Amino acid sequence: MTNFEDLEIWQLARHLTGQIYQLTRNGNFAKDYSLCNQIQRASVSVMSNIAEGYERGGNQEFIQYLAIAKGSCGEVRCQLYIALDQKYIDKTEADNLLDQHRKLSIMIYKFMEHLKGSRFKGAKYKAPKPDPELVEFEALLQSYLKK
Question: pTM for this one?
Answer without folding.
Answer: 0.81
